[in-house]
Protein: RNA helicase
Amino acid sequence: MKRKLDENDAPVSTANAEAPSTGATATFADLGLDSRLLQATARQNWHTPTLVQSKAIPLAIDGRDVLAKAKTGSGKTAAYTLPILQAILKRKQTSSESYTAALILVPTNELVTQVAKVLETLTSYCSREIKVSKLSDKLSDAAQRAVLSDSPDIVVATPARTWHNIKNSALSVDKLTHLVLDEADLVLSYGYDEDLQNVASSLPKGLQTTLMSATLTPEVDTLKGLFCRNPTVLDLVEPDEDGGGVSQFVVKCGEDEKFLLIYCMVKLELIKGKAIIFVSDVDRCYRLKLFFEQFGIRSCLLNSELPVNCRIHAVEEFNRGVYNIIIASDENEVVGEEKDQLESTGEEASSKNTTNEATESSEQNQAVVSSSKKRKSSRRDKNYGISRGIDFKNVAVVINFDLPLSSRSYLHRIGRTARAGQTGMALSFVVPKDKFRKHMPTSVETAENDEKVLSRIIKQQAKRGQEVKPYNFDMKAVEAFRYRMNDALRAVTKVAVREARLRELKQELLKSESLKRHFEENPLEVRHLRHDVELRTTRSQPHLKHVPDYLLPKDGKKAITPNEVGFVPFKKVLDGKGRKSRITKGRGRRVTGRKSDPLKSFKARSKTK
Structure:
C-alpha cells in the first residue's frame, strides 16, 4: 500500500521519533572501530564523523537494521562501509574461513567504481585480511566468474549484475551476513524491480540490512518491506539542508537565447570555477559541445552512449582539475518523477483519456516500478546516472541549460555543488510559454512545461528557506553577440551532430579497447588521455574564438550583469608580493601599476630657447 505523501513529496512517518537520541560523537575512535580502520580514516583527514556516520555506525555495529535518510555529500558511503569492515575484521580474529559476507547494491556503474574505491581506501591497512571485488558490465561472464571464484569478502555491483551471477552460480550468497542498498530511492526507478525481487528470494534469512537514501519515497518504503526487519529509521536533517549553500538564480529567455547567454557567460568569464551543464538528452549534449567549439571553449561530455570506462575517467579528471566544464545529459531522471511528469505533461492528455489515466494510476499504486519500465526503453544505458551519487569535487556552478522535469530532480542536480561546507551557484534557463517553439532549430519538447516546473521549484525552495532569484542580464548589452551566436548555430547542423556522436564513440572505443592492454601495463599514462578534445565535424570559424573590444558595452562586462551576480572563483591570480596582477598581451610577463600604461608613464620636456 502506498504511503501518504507530505507537501515535499516525502512519505509521512514517525522517522524522527524512531531515531535514537544519542549524543554527538567527537572522533572516529569513540565509535569503537578497529585500529586499522582508524588509521585509514586518519589518512583521509577524517577527524570528526558526520551526522549520519555518528548515528548509523553505532547502530550497525550493534547488529541493527538501519534505514537512513541524509543529504547528498554527507558521508553515507563511510557510514555503511565502516561497520561492515569492522564486522569482517572481528570475525577473522577467530575464523579463517573465506566466503562472501557482504553485498553492496548500487544503481549505476559509476557508483560501483566509486564505492569500490572508498573500500580500497578504508582497507589500506588491512588489505590482506579483506578482499573487495566489483562487478561491472565491462567484464565478460568468464572474467566475473574468475573474480568471484576467490570468494571475496565484499562484492559491489548493480542489482542486474548481482542476479546474473547468482543465477549462473558464480556468486554464492549462502553465508551472506550484510546487505546494503545505496541510493535506495534510485534503485527501483532504474528498472531493477525484477532483479531485486529475484535477489531477495535467494538471500538467507537473518541478514543485517542497511538502506541509504537522500529522500524518503514510496520506493524506499517498498524496499524496506522487501529487505528489512523492523529497521531503525534515521530521518536526519543537518544544519545545512540540500542546496543550503547554493545561491539559486533563474533566467527567463527564448530557446535560442540560451545559447547566446551561455556563450557570453563562459567566454566573458561572468561565471568562474568548475561547472556542470545539464542538458535534456544526448543529442543536445553534442550540439552544445559543437557550439562551444566554434568559440574555442573546451568542454567534455558525459552521456549514456559513452563506454563506462570513459565516463568514470572523465569524472576523475574533472575532479583533478584537468577539465573545467562538463556537459552532462540527464535523460535518465531520478526517482519519483512519475507523479511530477503526469502533473506537468499529462494534464491535457488525461482529460482526453480518463480510462488510461485510471489504469496507470492503479498500476502506480500497486508498484512504483511500472512507470520506470516504460522509461527503460528510451535509455542507452540503464546503469547510467549523473545527477545523483557521483562525487564531483569543487563544483562552483551548476547550470540547468534545460530545466529538469520536476522539482525533485532539480534538487538533486543543484546538490552537485556546495558540498562539504563550500558555497556554489545554480543557474537555470527557463523558456516562457509564449517563446516556446519560436526558434525551431534549438527547441526541445521538455521546454513546453518550464514555467510549471519553475513554479514548483520556487515553492519547494521557499519551504526550505531558500530563494530562487532572477539573474539580471541586460539583453541590449549582449545583443551585439547575437550574430556570432547565429553563425555558430548555423554550423551545428543535424548532420554535424550525428557525425560528432559517431566520431566521439570511435575515439572512446579506441581508448577503451585497443589501448586497454597498454594502459594496464602503464597505468600512469592513462592520465594523458583528454576527453575535452575538439570533434571538428563543423566548418572552422577562427574569428569566433576572439572577442573584439567593440562588441563589449561601454562599461565593459559589468554592464551585462549590473547587479554583479556571479560566483567568486576559488583561486585569484597574484603576483609574487601577494597582490593582484594582470598579464600583458604578447610578452606574457606580469606588470602592475602605472608602468602598464605607456601614456601615463610617458615623460617629455619642453624645448627651451
User: Anything to note?
Assistant: Residues 109 and 136 are 6 Å apart (CA to CA).
